[in-house]
Structure formats: C-alpha cells, structure tokens
Specification:
Elements: H1 2-32, E1 68-69, E2 84-85, H2 88-99, E3 109-117, E4 123-131, H3 142-153, E5 158-159, E6 161-163, E7 166-168, E8 170-179, E9 182-187
Parallel strand pairs: 1-8
Antiparallel strand pairs: 2-5, 3-4, 3-8, 6-7, 8-9
Length: about 190
C-alpha cells in the first residue's frame, strides 16, 4: 500500500510540474514576449479619416500629426483652455433647441456627431454614430439625422483647445439624447 501512495504522489507531482512549466512557457511566449506589430495600431481610437468624413472638402487641419482630445489641456500653462463652444454648453443648447423641429419623429436613442475643431476654431470632418438608449447600433429617421447634422454643422463659434503655448486641433463630439423625437439632453 505504501508503494502505491509513493507512486501516486510522484506521478501527480510530475504532472503538476509539467503543467506549471507549460503554463509558464505559454505565459512568457504570449504575454511577456509578445509585442504587437506597430502596423496594427497606426491610428488612435478617436481618429477621424478626413477622406471619408462629411464636410471635410475645404476643411483644413493645422497639424494632422497631433490632434488632441477636446478635454486635453496643459494645467501648467498660464493660459489653458479645453475645446468648447463660445457661448458654453448652455448657449449651444439654446442655439440647437431654437432650430430643431420634431417633425413627428418617434426615434429614441443617442445621435452622436464626432468631428474635428481645428486651431482656428473651425469645425469639419463629421462622422455619425446612431445608437438606441442601450447603446446598441440603431438607424434613426434619415430626416432627423439630416436635420441635426445640419444644425451641428451650423455651430460655427468654437474656441479651439489651447495648450503648450498654442491653439491646437482637437477631436470633439456632440451627442443628442433623443426620446420619442424630442432632444432631452445634449452631451458634453
């Protein structure tokens, strides 16, 4: 009986050692040694391709190699500013709501417009994302999308991002929360 226990312990210990070594090899090969190809991540997540974006024909980016996010700023600068509408959020909201007409739309969800505000405060290169209230892709009424796109494009009074002593290009977005065709919230 004692011989049987010794053999079982030796076999189980050997199997455990082999499994641990195998796991360590796989971990090292795929986690530690793995370096993703630089070609795989040429563009950042916020990237907007101006070749396919809307309203980008005559739109000029000041520095296409360095576009920041609207909320970026350098707190050490004596002047620092995030990208924002000239009349701030409340002014933007009043302007949008004064132009928007619910033409008996029944849509609910988030209609998102991403775009670039260049260093001169000009907006262009728009892309559209449509989602239901649970953030799943959803198609909205084309007239509603067209109306809000036109209103968004007409917003011309942008203060560009200012950091490191200069005004910068930045990625911006406006999300309209819509419930039964009514705008209930404008983000950011």
């Amino acid at each position: 009986m004692k011989k049987w226990v010794k053999i079982t312990v030796i076999v189980l210990s050997s199997l455990l050692l082999i499994a641990t070594a195998g796991y360590g090899y796989l971990y090292y090969t795929y986690k530690v040694k793995y370096v993703p190809s630089k070609d795989l991540y040429k563009k950042r997540v916020a990237y907007i391709d101006t070749k396919i974006a809307l309203f980008s024909e005559n739109f000029k980016i000041c520095d296409s190699t360095h576009i920041v996010d609207y909320y970026n700023y350098a707190p050490g600068d004596s002047i620092h500013r995030r990208t924002q509408y000239i009349t701030n959020k409340n002014g933007l909201r009043k302007e949008v709501l004064s132009k928007y007409v619910n033409r008996d739309y029944k849509d609910s969800g988030y209609l998102n417009f991403r775009f670039i505000v260049n260093c001169k405060g000009e907006a262009g290169a728009y892309v559209i994302y449509e989602n239901d209230l649970d953030l799943h892709p959803e198609k909205f009424n084309t007239d509603l999308v067209s109306q809000l796109l036109n209103i968004t494009v007409e917003l011309k009074k942008w203060k560009p991002n200012y950091m490191y002593g200069a005004e910068r290009d930045s990625y911006m977005y406006i999300s309209y929360r819509i419930e039964n065709g009514e705008i209930t919230e404008i983000i950011p």
